[in-house]
Amino acid sequence: MKLEDYRYLKKHFKDIQENVPLAPYTTFKIGGPADLFYEAREMDKLIELIELAKSLNISYVVIGNGSNILVADSGFRGLVIKNSCRNFEIKDNLIVAESGASLPQILHEAAGQGIGQNIWVLANIPGTIGGAVYGNAGSILNNQMVSIGDFLVKAKILAADGNINEVDRDYFDFSYRSSKLKQNQETVLQVILADSKGESTEILKMIDFDKRQRMGKYPAYPFAGSFFKNPPHSRAGELIEQCGLKGQRVGEAMVSEKHANYIVNLGKAKAVDVLELARMIKKRVKEKFGVELQEEIQYLGVNE
Ligand SMILES: Cc1cc2nc3c(=O)[nH]c(=O)nc-3n(C[C@H](O)[C@H](O)[C@H](O)COP(=O)(O)OP(=O)(O)OC[C@H]3O[C@@H](n4cnc5c(N)ncnc54)[C@H](O)[C@@H]3O)c2cc1C
Hints:
Layout: H1 3-12, E1 17-21, E2 33-40, H2 43-55, E3 60-63, E4 69-71, E5 76-83, E6 88-91, E7 94-98, H3 103-112, H4 129-135, E8 138-141, E9 144-147, E10 152-158, E11 164-168, E12 187-194, H5 200-217, H6 236-242, E13 249-250, E14 253-255, E15 263-265, H7 271-289, E16 298-300
Parallel strand pairs: 2-5, 3-5, 4-16
Antiparallel strand pairs: 1-2, 6-7, 7-12, 8-9, 10-11, 10-12, 13-14, 14-15
């Protein structure tokens, strides 16, 4: 980046920091520094900074809670914007939330108001609404996949041309752990979700039960949720387990003994360790089952 561009950015955004380690901003606790880092607490600032980065030709990425990303050891060459725009309100059966709002926080609060007959099943996914929409985060309820896209009524996005567009569910082309946002570089700004009402105490009880079930399955080490998507008609974790890979290590990255679709950071794992382990898993699963696993996790700064 040119020095004059950096000075220009710094003049407009005094709180931009340089050379910020990203590991603490991820649940994996892995990854090197971002050249530039900014925590956006106001939507206007988030939008202004993205537009400025575009006009200066600076690569940028918006992150939420970092619960679905692996950052390269070399970090990210460009600007990382952490979205901490967390305002939300609940009206009737609608949830209107800024994209940096925490999914668990919103859905607990909604449940407290009796909203969430179905959406409660997403209440323990530890990300932001924006991150959830990006990857169409979901969970199983009564043997069926329930995903954030099922509840999305409208959203505001910052489009590639700099316009703020109001779009509906169809716009996102939601499918299993995927949305159109994975193809374009648009940013979710605000989301409106709807779900039917129920008995508050019942919904809260189900959330709590789900939380305890999840805690029992989670490893004791940092990780970033399921590493691979489930292939059609099978489960990634089962395929990996059947290859005998539970406990397999590369450096301090390990296939969790608790769940084979979790790669854990035993403490000092490097992104290269995780990537090597992921390559090994994909190769073994391909050889044994002829199945090509695809990452659910998003790579940041990684040259594949
Ligand atoms: C313990 C644990 C349990 C989990 N359980 C589940 C589960 O049950 N189901 C499930 O689906 N996932 C699960 N995950 C994965 C993760 O929590 C979800 O994918 C979550 O939706 C990611 O949100 P985030 O804010 O952390 O996104 P981040 O990890 O910060 O970002 C993920 C991607 O979204 C993009 N992004 C973030 N915000 C925006 C925005 N506003 N606009 C556009 N793009 C954006 C980022 O650029 C990045 O590419 C789990 C993870 C952990 C650690």
